[in-house]
Design a protein that fits this description.
- This protein is about 70% helix and about 5% strand.
- The protein contains 16 helices and 4 strands.
- It has helices spanning about 45-50, 50-90, 100-135, 145-160, 165, 195-205, 215-220, 225, 230-235, 245-255, 255-280, 290-300, 310-340, 345-380, 385-420, 425-480, and strands at about 1-5, 30-35, 170, 175.
- The strands form 2 sheets. It has a two-stranded antiparallel ribbon with strand order 1-2.
- The chain is flat, with a radius of gyration of 43 Å.
Length: about 475
């Protein structure tokens, strides 16, 4: 990249020292060239112009969005193939058969495609970083955090069950048929190589980690990120458009829909993982219906105790389900509280009507106090009836207590209502006060100007009067002479 500056004419010639900003010896104007990049690495005109950079940035964003969608689809396809293989083997086909090898081959092929898509996505991301920061060398973008993140993504996406290629149930070329009532998971017999069984079960469960691509797809396909107005206002307010910001927007706009989708997906996936873990022990929680019931009561933090997990893997799944249930319950309470809260207009109407009702009750209480005072005064005139006198005293004290309680309640209501005054009303009040101050200032200024004019006229009148007196005295002296 080079920065050029024309000093006078466009046809000036540059000598060997112009790169340092010097002028040639012939006195001609020259062009100063300051190299900002390494020698031999210069941007093309397409990459150098701002308009072309914006166009390339738009194309790169579209490519990232497309690659992320393909990667998420490939990851979901691999998970579905894994679930299909776990459910069909050995019920429909036998371990080591051509069907098992075909499905495992498809899982491995989808994993390879997913890794390629992840690498292509990060390649586009690095190119976008180069365009945004106006750099040339791609190695500048390869920070330690980025390298660690890419490596971790590749490791997570590469996880898939591979025990079927090893055929642990084959001994001397003959496959041992499982018992009639057994339901061994993932084509593995519980009597041969239990370690390989646990490893394949763990690898199958860890394939759900690929769903981290959902948050990236939601971010890249959200209207918040694609809207130019959102990005402009966000850049002015130093807002980073991350998945957390997009999730907050979705929770504010569609809270019920977002929570429902998340809860249903988590319920089904956790139930199947629990079934996958519990099938090995041949217990009642190995069935899908019992697993759905156990995940539901654990998610809702009810815990009837009629069924419970028996394996370590199942206990971990139930523990994670309980934690997510508490978190979702807290979010649901927050959403319901927000939905049940009164808006500004409703609050104003409610507080206004409550203030009117309390004012009426205060007037009635004050009237009761005055009435009891008059009745007490009338009974004091007749000293014979002491029982009626005490009766009216008790009523007077009760009326005073009711009056004080109502006044306290009205004071609390008005204090709470004053806290709920919206900013727009305060702004209108301040605008009215400033307008009144401006009008008073202008009026005072006009009065000062009129007073100055009157003082000038008075000074001129004094001057004219002094001149007239001088002339009159001069004439009088002449007459005396």
């Amino acid at each position: 990249m080079e920065m050029t500056a024309r000093l006078a004419h466009s046809d000036a010639k540059v000598d060997g020292r112009n790169c340092d900003g010097l002028v040639n010896h012939n006195g001609e104007t020259t062009e100063i060239r300051v190299p900002l990049s390494h020698a031999g690495k210069r941007l093309s005109p397409i990459e150098g112009g701002n308009l072309y950079r914006l166009r390339d940035r738009k194309f790169l964003l579209e490519d990232k969005k497309r690659l992320c969608a393909w990667a998420l689809g490939t990851a979901v396809l691999g998970i579905l193939l894994m679930v299909l293989h776990a459910e069909l083997c050995p019920v429909v086909y036998q371990p080591g058969s051509i069907y098992a090898l075909s499905i495992n081959g498809l899982i491995s092929f989808s994993t390879g495609c997913l890794l390629i898509l992840i690498i292509a996505f990060h390649y586009k991301d690095i190119r976008l970083f180069i365009i945004d920061h106006n750099q040339v060398d791609w190695r500048i973008a390869m920070t330690s955090n980025r390298v660690l993140g890419i490596s971790l993504e590749l490791v997570v996406c590469a996880i898939h069950p591979v025990a079927n290629y090893l055929r642990p149930d084959m001994e001397d070329g003959v496959w041992e048929k499982p018992e009639q009532n057994s339901s061994t998971p993932l084509c593995l017999s519980s009597s041969h190589r239990a370690v390989m069984l646990d490893v394949e079960l763990l690898l199958s469960a860890l394939m759900f980690l690929r769903l981290y691509l959902v948050h990236r797809a939601v971010l890249l396909h959200s209207k918040v990120l694609l809207s130019a107005s959102y990005r402009s206002i966000g850049s002015l307010n130093n807002i980073n458009f991350t998945f957390r910001f997009v999730l907050k927007v979705l929770m504010n706009k569609y809270p019920a829909r977002t929570l429902l989708v998340f809860i249903m997906f988590f319920w089904l996936s956790a139930s199947w993982m629990l079934r996958l873990c519990e099938r090995q022990q041949q217990v009642e929680t190995g069935g899908m219906d019992t697993a759905l019931w156990l995940i539901a009561i654990t998610f809702l933090t009810v815990g009837y105790g009629d069924v419970s997990p028996h394996t370590s893997c199942g206990k971990v799944v139930c523990l994670f389900t309980g934690v997510m249930g508490v978190a979702c319950t807290a979010m649901l309470v927050a959403v319901m509280t927000k939905k049940l809260a009164l808006n500004k207009g409703e609050k104003h109407v409610h507080f206004f009507m409550m203030d009117i009702q309390i004012s009426k009750r205060i007037r009635h209480a004050a009237a009761n106090v005055l009435r009891e005072c008059w009745l007490l005064h009338r009974t004091t005139q007749t000293k014979d009836n002491s029982g009626e006198h005490r009766h009216h005293q008790r009523h007077l004290l009760e009326a005073i207590r009711v009056f004080r309680n109502l006044r306290l309640k009205q004071r609390k209501l008005r204090d709470f209502a004053s806290e709920m005054v919206d900013l727009s009303k305060m702004q209108m009040i301040m605008c009215d006060l400033s307008a009144n101050w401006n009008s008073s200032y202008h009026e005072l200024e006009q009065r000062i100007i009129s007073m100055e004019q009157k003082l000038d006229e008075l000074g001129r009148s004094f001057q004219i009067t002094s001149e007239l007196l001088t002339q009159a005295l001069h004439r009088r002296r002449l007459d005396h002479r």
